Amino acid sequence: MICIWCKKDFDKLSIEHVIPEGLACPDELVRTDVACGPCNNSLSRVDRALVKQFELHTVIHRVPRKNGKPPMINSWKGLRSRMGANGPEMFINGGPGAVKVAGETLQPASKKDGVSDVWIKPDEGTAGFRQQFGNDRRFLPAIHKIGLNLIAVCKSPQIAASARYDHIRSFVRLEKDAVHLSAVLEKETIFGAVTGANMVEKAGRQDPMFRIMILGTTFFVDTSPDQSGLRDFRATATMMGEPSYVFPEPVNT
Ligand SMILES: [Zn+2]
């Protein structure tokens, strides 16, 4: 059996969650024919970056984390949560100084760390904040890791391991050499813990495009080296007046 990441042959491969465990990966996307143990371990740093982006969603939707642990927020400097007696409890530090919460030091939420615009209205008993999406440099490699996994699932592991997809492999493993790889975020989100993926079929397209939904948020990923599928898709979406967010943000040349 071939590992799609190191391309080495193994008698037995490791259990791979095509969409990281802890983000409600459906059973059909838990595979034993995709990645070897060492690659699975070394690429877990990429998965963690994606889980961090969705920690807030896991708490809101009460999606269990890895190994069935309760959902939590523990990767953000100014944001924490834990499961209290009456449900999830969330702590946010609006600044300016550090505070102690549940025995831990909580730094002020900052735009640099992806959390901003903290507001509290004591009269109404409401509070809110903004979480920036995609500010982690491993966010795009994590989305493209799912893309190559999906080639293995929807086509075959041999096709995923072919030289045609080396550009994705190097982007995910080395996190460089592929500044042209992008992803599109659909404006519409579903409020629900819905996770899954499907191939976006189009006649004449050699490299598949995938629609990946993670806890209600949808991304489109193009596996072609020139990203032509995504470019066509964006042109159509813009014509139809559907604004979508692109990662990384386009650079005006
Ligand atoms: Zn491997």
Could you explain the architecture of this structure?
- It contains 7 helices and 13 strands.
- The chain has 253 residues and is α+β, with helices and mostly antiparallel strands.
- It has one domain (1-241).
- The strands form 5 sheets. A 5-stranded antiparallel β-sheet has the order 10-11-12-9-13. Strands 1-2 form a two-stranded antiparallel ribbon.
- Strand 11 (209-214) and strand 12 (217-222) form a beta hairpin.
- Helix 2 (44-53) packs across helix 4 and helix 4 runs antiparallel to helix 6 (166-174).
- It starts with 15 loop residues before the first strand and ends in a 6-residue tail after the last strand.
- Bound molecules: zinc ion.
- Zinc ion binds next to helix 1.
Provide keyphrases for this structure.
two-stranded antiparallel sheet; binds zinc ion; alpha+beta; single chain; five-stranded antiparallel sheet; globular; 25% helix; 253 residues
What compounds sit in this structure? zinc ion
Helix proportion of residues, in percent?
Answer: 25-40%
Rounded mean pLDDT is 87
Number of structural units classed as domains: 1
The low-confidence parts are none
Secondary-structure-derived class:
alpha+beta
Number of strands: 13
Task: Kindly provide the radius of gyration, computed on alpha-carbon positions and rounded to a whole number of angstroms.
Answer: 19 Å
Spatial shape: globular
- Give helix and strand order, one letter per element, not per position: EEHHHEEEEEEHHHEEEEHE
Strand content: 15-25%
Largest sheet: 5 strands, antiparallel
Report, as a whole number of angstroms, the end-to-end distance.
Answer: 45 Å
Number of helices: 7
Query: Order of strands across the biggest sheet?
Result: 10-11-12-9-13
